[in-house]
Amino acid sequence: MKYLSYKRDGLESIGLWVNDLIFDIPQAARFKGIRKMPGTLLEFLDQFDNNHQTITSIFAEVNPAKNPELFFPAGQATILPPLPHPGSLRDFYAFENHVKTARKNRGLDMIPEWYDFPVFYFSNHQAVYGPENVIPYPLESNALDYELEVAAIIGKRGRNIPENDADTYIAGYTIMNDWSARDIQREEMKVGLGPAKGKDFATSLGPWLVSRDELASHRTKSLYNLPMTAIVNGKKYSSGNWNTLYYSFAQMIARASENCTLYPGDVIGSGTVGTGCILELGSEKYGWLQPGDEVILEIEGLGRLRNTIGPE
User: Out of 3.90.850.10, 2.40.30.90, 3.40.190.10, 3.40.630.10, which CATH number does the structure's domain 89-309 have?
Assistant: First the structure.
């Protein structure tokens, strides 16, 4: 299932993406006599397994031709980030190729401690953008970059979650763009704490939350064989694959939940796939992003996340 958040007639709601149609989940629940179906994806995640089972059952019984009142054209709604206001946003550093290349480009060797455990930082969960949104160019920066990532959305509360059970806490996945002001990031990290302001202004998520069961055929062991690409102004910049993760999402979740409770609606980012940013590719050749640029991130099975860069 491809769950999405949208706004229609001024109200936020939850639906399924079905070939350029939106399946209206609250309306479908009422159609089946269910009165307590959540009206937003964040609320839906609070009992995700039960709600997902219910909607899967309802959806199997309907179709646009037979039940047109349950579907409407996507163009009649504004597509929001899957979670416009997630509970928290942790971004890991889990693709080895990205870490090696980014450090090499700064004249640094690979740090041995990186192999001891997955590391993350907290980003700004109140600065989330969705598909087609304009990303404001950060003040005092001349080095704006994108980062091609995948994110897991937590669908069950848990603390000190064992790695072998961690996948069951994932409701689904979405595309993530961790926008980065590299010049600000470079200066603040000299202090030994961060990144912070270099990442504080924007993170894009979307277009949908794709449930785990929909991706099962692409899974091998703990990873998914799904190509990842980034296109800037019509030119392919980045090309990678989800299956090159060094640390699985199960390992990330086990780490994040140590002595800490994870809640439905928390976002866990993978970090940048190898070649997944201009910092890796080389700003001399590609140039930093500029106002007016279009950035499209695509992950097979997860869709297409498009944003343009606006003025400051």
Answer: 3.90.850.10
